[in-house]
Design brief:
It is a single chain. The chain has 207 residues and is mainly alpha-helical. The chain has one domain. The chain has helices at residues 2-18, 20-47, 53-81, 89-114, 121-140, 147-167, 177-206. The mean pLDDT is 82.
Length: 207
């Protein structure tokens, strides 16, 4: 039984390494789509005044569900294009790697919907989500191209710097800044990374 388990894991790791180029191509549309969703959501959230903690948490958790659903559809399309099964052992490994951090982010969001004494918690919640997302990306980076780990560290370092910087301020920014923070990281940053992946992959194919 242990031998079969080890062989299955070894095969999954070998497959992930062999398909790193395919996953890199799949990342470009995934990151671009997620970035667009994040950017539009940030603008809409600020525009319509979604600033109370419960509303902010519910709103962005719904946005994340839309982004995740779209990402899975894009990955499924890429798998069909390559003639592969969508829910393959490598896909399960990546999902299992990112699931703990995303699960904690979901629990924190639900907690803040129920208990939210301060309006500026929208910024704190945003930064917690950013840090957890960075952890999720870093975990996925063990099965994917190296660049995803560097991108994960951008979230971790950027989120940490903002959290410490805001903590040193005598007065917290208004709650609308929660949407600004989310838009920068989940919108602009991911959109820029998706565009970067698209053009670098295009140059590689032309070469």
């Amino acid at each position: 039984m242990d031998t079969n388990w080890a062989a299955a894991n070894l095969q999954a790791i070998r497959t992930l390494m062999e398909r790193s180029a395919i996953y890199r191509r799949a990342l470009a549309p995934v990151m671009t789509f997620t970035g667009l969703v994040g950017l539009v959501a940030a603008i809409a959230g600020a525009r319509f005044g979604i600033v109370s903690m419960p509303q902010f948490a519910i709103y962005w958790m719904c946005v994340s569900l839309v982004a995740i659903a779209g990402d899975f559809l894009l990955v499924r399309r890429q798998a069909l294009k390559e003639g592969e099964r969508f829910w393959s052992p490598p896909t399960r490994r990546v999902t299992q790697a990112i699931l703990p951090a995303l699960f904690v982010g979901c629990i924190v969001g639900i907690f803040r919907m129920v208990w939210a004494p301060y309006a500026q918690d929208t910024i704190v919640l945003s930064l917690i989500w950013i840090l957890l997302y960075g952890c999720a990306l870093h975990s996925a980076g063990f099965f994917m191209p190296r660049g995803i780990k560097m991108f994960a560290w951008a979230f971790l370092l950027g989120g940490s710097a903002l959290l410490l910087g805001f903590a040193r301020m005598s007065k917290w920014p208004p709650p609308e800044y929660g949407h600004v923070v989310m838009g920068i990281f989940f919108g602009v940053a991911q959109l820029a990374y998706g565009i970067y992946l698209y053009f670098t992959e295009q140059r590689k194919n032309e070469a």
